[in-house]
Amino acid sequence: MDKGKAVMGSGRRWAVEFTDNSTSHSSRDIPDPPGFTRASQEQDDSALSKQKKDAEANWKAQKAWEVAQAPFKNLFMMAFMMWMAGSTVHLFSIVFEPYKDNKVDLLAPKLVFIALNLVGLGLGIWKLNTLGLLPTHVSDWVSSLPPPQEVEYSGGGIPLH
């Protein structure tokens, strides 16, 4: 078989013609529907794109603030979970990269995010300290030294000697 020849016997090739040779009315002859004006379609593209860019910048700024305040919304839940589950580790990996824009100032949301995560970190350190898991005594570092004397006893009020 020759390359480029049609497989079918007739050798007919398909083609689509996009010109309108019909005698029917064109779309310009049909009146516009109620409420539609062609002037609204012909707005200045630069003004429309500027509005779109401003709206996108406002949306990004709003979302950045939502991300920044998310640790505060979870702070009480984290405290409750730490109280219920003992010592747990929470990892937060939220990046402000999707909200980066020349028109959006991300410094304040980033600072709020860092501050609220530091509060969460402080809460975690406090929890580890209450569990006695932080090395706060010299004997925690040097095994040859005796451990500190216990200051709390649980035995129904009877001291253990």
Please supply descriptive tags for the structure shown above.
mainly alpha; 3 helices
Q: Mean pLDDT across all residues, rounded?
A: 75
Strand content: under 5%
- Counting DSSP E segments of at least 2 residues, the number of strands comes to 0
Amino- and carboxy-terminal Cα gap: 105 Å
Query: Any idea what the shape is?
Result: elongated
Main beta-sheet strand count, sense and barrel state: none
Overall radius of gyration: 35 Å
Structural class label: mainly alpha
Low-confidence stretches: none
Q: Given the structure, what is the number of helices? A: 3
Percent range of helical residues: 40-55%
Order of helices and strands: HHH
Task: Please provide a written account of the structure.
Pfam families: EMC4 (PF06417). Belongs to the EMC4 family. It is a multi-pass membrane protein. One of its GO terms (cellular component) is endoplasmic reticulum membrane. It comes from Sesamum radiatum (Black benniseed). The protein is mostly helical and 161 residues long. It has three helices and no strands. It has helices spanning 38-41, 45-85, 107-130. It is elongated and about 105 Å long. The termini are far apart.
